[in-house]
Amino acid sequence: MEAQVGGRAPGVLPAEEEGPNARRIPPIMVRPLVDGGKPGPAAPGVEVGVGLLGFGAVGSQVYRLLEEGAERIARRTGWRPTVRRIAVLDPARPRAHPLPVHLLAPDAAAVVGDPQVEVVVEVMGGLEPARTLVLEALRRGKAVVTANKRLLATHGAEVSSAAAAAQAPLAFEGAVGGAIPIVKPLRETLAADRVRVVEGILNGTTNFVLTRMTRDGWALADALAEAQRRGFAEADASEDVGGHDAAAKLAILASLAFDAAVTDADVFREGIQEVAPRDIAYARELGYVVKLLAVGRDLGEAVDVRVHPALIPQTHPLATVEEERNAILVVGERAGPLVFSGPGAGGAATAAVVVGDILDVAGRRRRGSGEAAPARRPAGVPARRPVWPVEDLVIPYYFGLQVTDRPGVFARVAAVFGEEEVSIASIVQKSRGAVADVVLLTHEAREAAVRRVVARLRAMDVVKSVDSVIRVVE
Ligand code: HSE
């Protein structure tokens, strides 16, 4: 067969292989989100009653997907999950998608208690009444699907043990990273491996902000306003900027990865409020990018869990994750490094995995395999483990300082580092004048010593300011 170069029809991909069996792949049809086309013959599909708690960005999309995708889902999986009842906190609230009022229950307890509801889908968010409703659903032996990161990060152990006690299936893929499959890989696929590291960009808003500051030189406030306009940010954007949202997600991932009960209160947290465009520019010159990084490490006796701005090398697998995208690097002892990435938020994306969870738990419930089945931890809840104090962290640090520009100043600054046993890897003066910008990188040092250095520098007459101290994650 003659090779065809540039002679193919528009939209048709090249032949998969050359030779007599070569076959053309038809053009890829981009289908609208709404399943259109002629309805085919109804697929049989086993009905599963679903109760929806919440009808916001995710809940309304779950409803849409179950309605519009019903035939396809039944044909593909044999299940026909059907929303039987819906409860919302405020039916009068204006919504992007109209509430199907014929399914509206008088209150959430009526959804959880409805005998037609086998799977309770909690997408209302917040701690209460979500916690009480989820626990009640599990106590009744219903399957529960939740996308509520705050609930799981705070009360994950209680919810897991309720599921185990009732032998009721529980799934929560939508709670971390939107549609990125990360919960199941950690909970099931890698259950036999030992995961030592989970590192991630877990907040879309701050990644968008840092990307705009890095690439386009925007100020933090302007980039945040744009993220809010685009709908990535939490209702209270300080949840994003202050690292709370990422800390909740890290608590969930660390619990799964390290088989430990980690809560959001365990996670050391610093936000991006203090990151300055100058630090981003200097970091770039040194071969790094600045990210809000969530770091989880299994240290054996303890777990190291923290969210903070970090300099990561431009060659790091997470360095090229930009805009509002999320990504998680998982390092298994046997599996090696794995990267999961994707949009990380959004109603339609999250709804796709919530419906995947509904199909999963429906099957498990009908087979009688709840949380106490052999594939699940019989005792239900992993133990708590001590959290490694951040003061004992031993990693490199970046310093941005302003010092008086005259001979002997470097020597005095360097002496402080030396006396505190913090070894300097490089020190560069970035500007000239009465006061000069100085950028300094240390070798691995103990955080407690670095904090002593900062306090001593701030007391020196030749040091005008210690503007930034940022951890370096290699
Ligand atoms: N505000 C969150 C973010 C949305 O920016 O990632 C998803 O949890």
Distance between the termini: 50 Å
Ligand catalogue: L-homoserine
Low-confidence stretches at least 5 residues in length (pLDDT < 50)?
1-23, 30-34
Shape, per Cα inertia axes: elongated
Return the average pLDDT rounded to an integer.
90
* Class computed from helices, strands and strand pairing: alpha/beta
Q: Can you describe what's shown?
A:
- The structure is a single chain.
- By secondary structure, the chain is α/β, with parallel strands linked by helices.
- Helix 1 packs across helix 12, helix 4 runs parallel beside helix 5 and helix 7 crosses helix 8.
- Helices cover 32% and strands 23% of the residues.
- Strands 6, 7, 8, 9, 10, 11, 13, 14, 15 and 17 form a ten-stranded mixed β-sheet that branches.
- It has 14 helices and 17 strands.
- Bound molecules: L-homoserine (HSE).
- L-homoserine (HSE) binds next to helix 7.
- L-homoserine binds next to helix 7.
